[in-house]
Design a protein that fits this description.
The chain has 210 residues and is α/β, with parallel strands linked by helices. It has 2 domains: 4-15 and 80-207, HAD superfamily/HAD-like (Rossmann fold, 3-Layer(aba) Sandwich); 17-78. Helix content is 41%, strand content 14%. It has helices at residues 17-30, 39-44, 50-56, 61-71, 86-96, 107-117, 135-146, 160-169, 183-187; strands at 4-7, 14-15, 81-82, 98-102, 125-127, 153-157, 172-176, 193-195. The strands form 2 sheets. The protein has a 6-stranded parallel beta sheet, sandwiched between helices. A two-stranded antiparallel sheet has the order 2-3. Strand 4 (98-102), helix 6 and strand 5 (125-127) form a beta-alpha-beta unit.
Amino acid sequence: MNTLFLFDFDGVLADSLDLYSEAVVRCLERIGTPIVKDKADYLELFEGNFYEAMAARGVDLVAFGKAAGEILPGIDYDSMTPFAGLIPVLAALSTDHLLAVISSNGYRTIRAMLVRFGFDSYFQDIFGSDFRFSKKEKIDYALAKYRIARERAFYIGDTAGDILEARAAGVRSVAVTWGWHSRERLAAVNPDYLVDTPEGLLTLSAAVSS
C-alpha cells in the first residue's frame, strides 16, 4: 500500500452539520462563552483549525471539553447519516491503498458511526480530537506511523481549514463539495483537487506516479 488517503469524518463521510452546530451552541452557552449563535457562526470556526479558532475567541478548551462530555452523549446520533455513494468508493480505494480518518470529532463517536455505516472495514486507523487537536500534527503522525512520503498522501476535507492544514502538512489537499463549506469557499483556498462526487475520489490515485 503505497498511497495514504486521510479522510475527514464530519462533512466528508458523515452528514452531521445540523447535529453538531446545535450541540456546540449548547456547549458554549453552558460555559458562558456563547460565541456561536447559529450555523453560519459555527461554520466560520472551520476557516482554520476548529479548536484554535475557538481558543482565539476566548473559549476555555478544557471547560468546553467538559461541557461536551456532558452534552454530546445525549444528542441524537441516529440522525447522523452517511453520504450516499461512498461504500463502493471506499471499497475500491482500500483494495490497493491505506485509508485512515483524521478528524476534530472523538474516536469513540467516529468508530461507532463507521461501524453503523458499514465503513469500518475500509479504515486502518482513526485519529480524533482525543489524540491531538491539530490536524496537521495528526497528518504528520500518520505519515510517520505508516512510513508514507508526503507526496503520496492525500487529505480529504470539506472546509477551508482542512485544506489549510493539509497544505501545512505538505500533503495533497482534496476539497469535497458535498460537505460543510460551499464550493466557492473551498475554491478560494486553492485546494490541489476539488471533487464534486464520491466517485471523483477514484481518480486521485492516478495522480500519484507508481
